[in-house]
Specification:
The protein is built from two helices and three strands.
């Protein structure tokens, strides 16, 4: 999916809660966007996996990544 098309879909899907600001460069098999969570006025990242990368194993890995990021943020707010 082209970058502009993906961004437009994300903006439409997340418009109530997030403002998509930009796509980060690089990123192996996922596309990563910087966004602002409106309710808390804070920066977040939105990670989008391609359909072919989604499986039970990748879902567990993705969940683990989220948990680690939350845990790390308790010690270092810029992670």
């Amino acid at each position: 999916m082209r970058a502009l098309e993906l961004r437009q879909r994300l903006e439409a899907l997340l418009a109530d809660a997030y403002t998509i600001e930009r796509e980060l460069e690089g990123g192996g098999m996922a596309r990563v966007f910087v966004a602002e969570e409106r309710a808390f006025a804070r920066k977040v990242v939105v990670k989008v996996l391609p359909p072919e990368a989604v499986s039970a194993a990748s879902a567990k890995r993705f969940d683990r990544e989220i948990r680690l990021a939350r845990f790390s943020a308790t010690f270092e707010p810029f992670i």
